[in-house]
Specification:
The protein has 242 residues and is an alpha/beta fold. It has 7 helices and 16 strands. The chain has an 8-stranded mixed sheet, with helices on both faces.
Length: 242
């Protein structure tokens, strides 16, 4: 069972502090699973921690959180070699693919090296719901702002471009994010795009934004666009609390 249209939920959230485990599945990720429309069995959710170098502890924490929530979990690791024989077949067999944050530059490089970029495109086109946080949000877009290269944020414009927009993450919590994102759109380095506060997400079906959603009060999505005179407009989107 998959979504009836290509679906992406790009977020600055999706996990919340846990009680019995270190962190647990948050409402944004629950919503991604809901969008897959699974009935009568546990939803199959594949986790990618590429942006964190496939850190074993993080993958273990995912399994703990996923089993607690009743998912049928799996993961795709690329270090030191892919852990599955056929990456495309594995992703196509999932209901949801969940991509964690970290280095979006490293994630994109490793994905292209191993053909995960094209596998993701096929999964998206087949209706597997793609979701993720931070690097796992920017990756679906043309690009955004990143700390992949150091503490001073820099632009990245080598995303998968499944969505023809730029993406700003951690919009309210990291002071460099908002001004740099706006400046990059103003000067044409990045195309018009959408941004999320921590705890907010953007639902796209096909390449159209359907809605902004949030897993906590006060978190919003935004549309940021370049005006003809080279200035930038920012619009806070109506954001539905899950």
């Amino acid at each position: 069972m998959t979504a009836d249209r290509p679906t992406i939920l790009a977020t600055s959230g999706g996990a919340v502090p846990g009680r019995r485990v270190r962190w647990q599945v948050g409402p944004l990720t629950d919503y991604a699973v809901e969008l897959a429309g699974v009935t009568g069995r546990a939803p199959k959710v594949c986790f990618l921690a590429t942006a964190c170098g496939d850190r074993p502890g993080l993958i273990r924490e995912f399994y703990e959180a996923a089993l607690l929530r009743g998912f049928a979990p799996s993961h795709l690791a690329l270090f030191t070699m892919p852990n599955v024989e056929d990456v495309t077949a594995h992703l196509l067999d999932q209901d949801v693919v969940w991509v964690w944050g970290g280095s979006v530059a490293g994630l994109l490089a490793m994905w292209r090296l191993h053909g995960v970029d094209e596998a993701m495109r096929q999964a998206w086109q087949a209706g597997v719901v793609l979701t993720g946080v931070s690097a796992g949000s920017i990756c679906w877009h043309v690009g955004g702002t990143t700390d992949s290269f150091g503490p001073d944020l820099r632009p990245i414009d080598t995303g998968l471009a499944l969505l023809p927009y730029s993406n700003g993450v951690h919009y309210d919590s990291e002071e460099q994010r908002r001004p740099l994102f706006q400046r990059l759109i103003a000067d044409g380095t990045l195309p018009d795009g959408y941004a999320t506060d921590d705890g907010a997400g953007l639902l796209y079906q096909g390449t159209e934004l359907v809605e902004a959603v949030a897993e906590k009060p006060g978190a919003f999505g935004y549309r940021v666009s370049r005006n003809p005179d080279g200035t930038v407009s920012e619009e806070q989107l109506p954001t539905r609390l899950l």
